[in-house]
């Protein structure tokens, strides 16, 4: 498939920009490898999710307006964060004029969603191998709002756009958890209810460890960050890598 000169605006969430720049670079490389002209608009900032999570809709208006103003000109807007894309897709209602928002939101894609729906799994050109057994954490926004996979609590045939994309990486073995449950991060929830948040994260880690997994991946680095902190505190031998890093071959890990 040719990208046909389509312009892609790369949105990099705040925490990735500050703490995990390798995820942003990996996303850029994967998109460019598939022929897209990718631009990173420098005036970008937070999508407003923390404010919206706390019910501060008036305060979030400027963030939403800036986001749409900045990315409206692109053919696609792609981000390595399901929760941020979900915020702009589903939570800007009332903050942006309805007609304008309706024209804008179809352009928004999480990275795996974009590779699956726009590029097409059959057209993926993933040059790197990742010969590891990997546990896939399905984060809440990506699972239940973006519908990137079938939630385990629903009695429907299994599907996963994330698995479909990852399975194109040579040597990878993808392991599903017993249940799709929140890791407990939830942004400010992890601060307000830290004990519950930590317990939820440890449950997710235990689920994956019980399947012999020592590497966990997902489409939201915020969730992985939360569980990574718990694993380090508990001295649990587990590594956490973003899907984009696996797709781009920008990570070096060993099982153990």
From TrEMBL:
GO molecular function, one term: oxidoreductase activity
Domain of life: Bacteria
InterPro entries membership: Cys_rich_dom (IPR004017)
A Gene Ontology cellular-component term: cytosol
Protein source organism: Nitratifractor salsuginis (strain DSM 16511 / JCM 12458 / E9I37-1)
Ranges of residues in domain Cysteine-rich: 8-85, 134-227
Name of this protein: Cysteine-rich domain-containing protein
Entries under PANTHER family matching the protein: LACTATE UTILIZATION PROTEIN A, UNCHARACTERIZED PROTEIN YKGE
Pfam families reported for this sequence: CCG
């Amino acid at each position: 498939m040719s990208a046909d000169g389509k312009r892609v605006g790369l949105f990099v969430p705040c925490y990735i920009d500050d703490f995990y720049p390798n995820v942003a670079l990996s996303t850029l490389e994967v998109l460019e490898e598939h022929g897209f002209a990718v631009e990173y608009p420098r005036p970008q900032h937070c999508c407003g999710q923390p404010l919206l999570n706390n019910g501060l809709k008036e305060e979030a208006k400027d963030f939403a307006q800036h986001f749409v103003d900045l990315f409206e000109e692109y053919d696609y807007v792609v981000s390595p964060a399901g929760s941020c894309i979900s915020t702009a897709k589903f939570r800007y209602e009332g903050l942006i004029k309805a007609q304008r928002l309706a024209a804008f939101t179809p352009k928004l894609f999480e990275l795996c969603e974009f590779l699956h729906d726009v590029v097409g799994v059959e057209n993926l050109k993933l040059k790197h191998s990742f010969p590891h057994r990997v546990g896939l954490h399905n984060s809440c926004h990506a699972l239940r709002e973006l519908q990137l996979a079938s939630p385990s609590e629903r009695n429907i045939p299994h599907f996963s756009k994330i698995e479909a994309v990852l399975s194109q990486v040579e040597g990878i073995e993808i392991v599903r958890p017993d249940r799709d449950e929140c890791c407990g991060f939830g942004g400010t929830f992890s601060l307000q209810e830290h004990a519950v948040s930590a317990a939820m994260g440890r449950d997710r880690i235990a689920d994956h460890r019980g399947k012999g997994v020592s590497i966990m991946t997902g489409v939201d680095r915020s969730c992985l960050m939360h569980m990574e902190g718990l694993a380090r505190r508990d001295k649990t031998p587990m590594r956490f890598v973003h899907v984009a890093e696996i797709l781009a071959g920008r990570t070096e890990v060993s099982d153990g």
